[in-house]
Amino acid sequence: MSLEARLESLKQRHAGLDARITDEDRRPRPDDDSLSRLKLEKLRLKEEMERLRTRQ
User: Can you give the pLDDT at residue 35?
Assistant: First the structure.
């Protein structure tokens, strides 16, 4: 997989996680554990994208 394709894949996953976080946060009683896991995964993806961008 090329670097650009990998970055695009990560961007899509990041956007998907953002949507899931928003959906969970809008629920009447959001699941804090679920939100924490989603936010942590989103942060990891962001860090990986930054790492890949600095390698270019």
Answer: 97
What is the value of pTM for the model shown?
Answer: 0.87
What 3-state class would DSSP assign to 27? coil
- Measured in whole angstroms, the distance separating CA 35 from the mean position of its chain's CA atoms is 12
CA-to-CA dists, residue 47 to 1, 11, 26, 29, 41, angstroms: 19, 11, 26, 29, 10
Alpha-carbon distance of 47 to 42, in angstroms, equals 9
The answer for residues whose C-beta is within 8 angstroms of residue 49's C-beta and 6 or more apart is 7, 10, 11, 14
| CA-closest candidate to residue 25, choices 14, 36, 15, 10 | 36
